[in-house]
Write a structure and sequence with these properties.
The chain has 14 helices and nine strands. It is α/β, with parallel strands linked by helices. The longest helix is centred in the first third of the chain and has 21 residues. Pfam families: Amidohydro_2 (PF04909).
Length: 341
């Protein structure tokens, strides 16, 4: 099988964005706040939103299953307060669940959390619980910067995050560390903020001792880990200077990287630096980079081509494409086994 661990619902029906616009307008006092019941999207509309888009491209690229979460840039945790985020997260998570229910062998839901700047992360636990227990979510997206590019949240190693980690460990569910849109004009959302966040999160984990307290917690760093593979020597040296164990012992038992890197040299570097057991196949399709590379004639985000053209052995390629995801996402593995796969 080929399991894509990083998919977002970027093609949701327009009614979802219209509902969000009404919610934001209400915060400014220019309109009444919409009710969740005001959002009416039929099953046919859901099918029409994914079948000619994600499903078609999955078929073309041989991707069997996608871990499907709400659109990352739409999370926008900086908007409003906790109640705003809670209502928005509930709607987005329900839609991903419904898509997965319509195509149960192709999509598996993952959840966004109702984070809000300055609000205790423990407030996210009820939505996490609901999505795992009611929707069958196999993962969550954890935003290390709910402020939208101003980085006012404490590092991921801060104890304020611990109630959330405790619940993730209890459910045996991993978190993908994924920021949302940037409102800081210094940081382009997908070209800078996303990659900055991947790099920043890794360094926070190097500085701390989170996995001493949570030895079974699993975190996935998307987009190939940002600058991490390119500067692996720097991180090794900093860990040494900080008196930490080697990175293989300190973080690689718990931290994993996806293959959302959109050229062959980048994938080659990732797979040369990071052990193959720590790499999960992903394409983020349909995501931030959608065009055809004029140098290759193929879509930039057709990452399967890069993995299969790498120097990995056939066994390692199979691990990256399927087996690592089954290990990191045990609820996904259990679901696939129930389906006879």
């Amino acid at each position: 099988m080929i399991i894509d661990c990083h998919g977002h619902y970027t093609t949701a029906p327009p009614a979802l964005a219209a509902w969000r616009e009404r919610q934001i307008a209400a915060l400014a006092g220019s309109a009444a706040a919409p009710s969740p019941a005001d959002l009416r999207i039929t099953d046919d509309e859901l099918r029409e939103s994914v079948e000619p888009n994600q499903l078609r491209m999955m078929d073309e690229r041989g991707i069997d299953v996608t871990v499907f979460s709400p659109r990352a840039s739409f999370m926008a945790h900086h908007v409003g307060d906790f109640r705003t985020s809670a209502a928005w997260a509930a709607l987005c998570n329900e839609l991903c669940h419904r898509v997965a229910a319509l195509h149960p062998e192709r999509f598996v839901p993952a959840a966004m959390l109702p984070q809000s700047p300055g609000v205790d992360p423990v407030t996210c636990v009820p939505e996490l619980t609901r999505c795992v227990e009611e929707y069958g979510a196999v993962a969550v997206n954890l935003n290390p910067d709910p402020s939208g590019g101003h980085w006012t949240a404490p590092p991921l190693t801060d104890r304020s995050w611990y109630p959330l980690y405790e619940k993730l460990v209890e459910y045996d569910v991993p978190a993908m560390v994924h920021v949302s849109t940037s409102v800081n004009p210094a940081f382009h959302t997908t070209g800078a903020h996303y990659l900055n966040a991947d790099t920043t999160a890794f360094m926070q984990l190097v500085q701390g001792d989170l996995f001493t307290d949570f030895p079974t917690l699993r975190l996935v760093l998307p987009h190939g880990g940002g600058a991490v593979p390119y500067h692996w020597g720097r991180f090794r040296g900093l860990a040494l200077a900080l008196g930490k164990p080697p990175l293989e012992e300190h973080v690689l038992g718990n931290v994993f990287f996806d293959t959302c890197v959109y050229h062959q040299p980048g994938i080659d570097l990732l797979l040369d630096v990071v052990p193959a057991r720590n790499v999960l196949f992903a394409s983020e399709m349909i995501g931030a980079v959608r065009d055809v590379d004029p140098c290759t004639g193929h879509h930039f985000d057709d990452t399967r081509r890069y993995v299969e053209a790498s120097a990995l052995s056939a066994e390692q390629v199979a691990a990256v494409r399927e087996h690592n995801a089954r290990s990191v996402y045990p609820r996904l593995d259990a679901l696939l086994k129930r389906q006879g796969r």
